[in-house]
Amino acid sequence: MTIITLTQFSRLYAGRCLARNSARNIPWVGGHTSQTSGQIAAISGLSSSTKLLSRHVSGTASNAPTTWVDRLPPKIRPYLYLTRIDKPIGTLLLFYPCAWSITMASYALEAPLTTPLTYLSLFGLGAMVMRGAGCTINDMWDKNLDKAVERTQSRPLARGDINQRQALVFLAGQLTVGLGVLLQLNWYSILLGASSLSLVTVYPLMKRITYWPQAVLGLTFNWGALLGWSAVAGAVNWSVCLPLYAGGVCWTLVYDSIYAHQDKIDDINVGIHSTALLFGERTRPILGALSASTVSLIGLAGILDAHGVPFYLGLGLGAAQLARVLWKTDFESRPSCWQGFVGCGWSGFWIWMGALADYAVLISGLT
After folding, report:
1. What residues contact 149, with CB distance under 8 A and at least 6 apart?
2. pLDDT tens-digit profile of 18-31?
3. What's 62's DSSP letter?
4. Which residue among 26, 57, 69, 223 has the highest number of C-beta atoms inside a 10 angstrom radius?
5. Per-residue pLDDT reduced to its tens digit, 256-297
């Protein structure tokens, strides 16, 4: 038993060394070398040994609960995992642009408190439902690709917990609930919201044909920057919302490029494209420039909406958070990239808090 354990441990250590070496040798623009391919294959071959060693050392059963979803009835677990409900950061990243826009529109119109509360509640529910629907669509497109990427092999469709037909029926239910939320808005907003479905549908295809799928995700995830304003005001104020939307797209490029660095070795192996591969060793300065663009464009939206000091204090905290993320993230470490991805969400939170504080000052009569 001791000899087997030591052998497995040596394999694990060798696998880590190979992973570090392969990360250094990735040619980011263009094809990869045969040496890198060999290393990737070696890492894949070691994965089963690594899992075996982990179970041997910990003595933990493989079916032990890892999230709150695992404590629910087995029949509904795959559907909940399909929506990524156990990882709320995706819902928050979809919600924050909506929250910015709703709060800024309420500020511009000096709307009563019930107005932002109503629409923030509706958009919060809508963000959770439509983020889940987006994940379902993505996994239906990527079922076979997910089987080849270590991080996504356990997704319900890739693992075979549910089939495509079951996922399609579930998606129909998600879209029905999303439509129910959308129908609570004015007709201008209903049509504007429905027009985003084409982006939601084609986004999963983009990673197959371009190194800029993150840009398409940005166009999709920040639609709420337009929709939130029209829900409150009845129409979009394009002079404010366009820079707000553009700033959100830049923000998405930052956080989703960090996210994409988690899978860059597997992505090369299966032929998936991303800005992580495109930017490569230039990732940090490029994301720094995109972060500066995010702050500048959202700041411009604030100027055009005549915001006060609290708005810019929140924007400053958001900028500091982005700087902190870019300073600390190790793009060769999957856990570090995940932490950086989640950390970017806090920048969106602080921007919203600034807008909310400015609105609170306005309606309290302190200005």
Report:
1. 263, 266, 267, 270, 272
2. 344 444 434 343 44
3. T
4. 223
5. 999 999 999 988 988 899 999 999 999 999 999 999 999 999
CB of 252 within 8 A of CB of 222? Answer: yes
| pLDDT value of position 13 | 41
Q: CA-CA distance, 158 to 154, in Å (whole number)? A: 7
Contact 337, 256 (CB under 8 A): no
Structure tokens at 178: 């999303």
Q: What is the value of pTM for the model shown?
A: 0.81
Residue 92: partners with Cβ closer than 8 Å, 6 or more residues away: 127, 345, 348, 349
Structure tokens at 305: 């909406």
337's tokens? 């990239």
Q: Are 188 and 235 in contact (CB under 8 A)?
A: yes
Residue 15's pLDDT band, with cuts at 50, 70 and 90, is: very low
Q: Under 8 Å CB-to-CB from 116, ≥6 apart: which residues?
A: 102, 103, 106, 232, 359
Contacting residues for 31 by C-beta, under 8 A, at least 6 apart: none
Residue 224, number of CB atoms within 10 A of its CB? 26
* Rounded Cα distance, 233 and 235, in Å: 6
Q: How far apart (Å, rounded) are the C-alpha atoms in residues 111 and 57?
A: 60
CA 280 vs CA 18, 23, 287: distances in Å: 19, 10, 11
258 token code pair = 């960090």
Checking if the pLDDT of 174 tops 90, the result is: yes
- Rounded distance, CA 102 to CA 231, Å? 8
The two three-digit tokens of residue 193, written as one number = 């919201």
Q: How far is C-alpha 148 from the chain's CA centre?
A: 21
Residue 331: what pLDDT?
97
Nearest C-alpha neighbor of 136 from the set 199, 85, 83, 80: 83
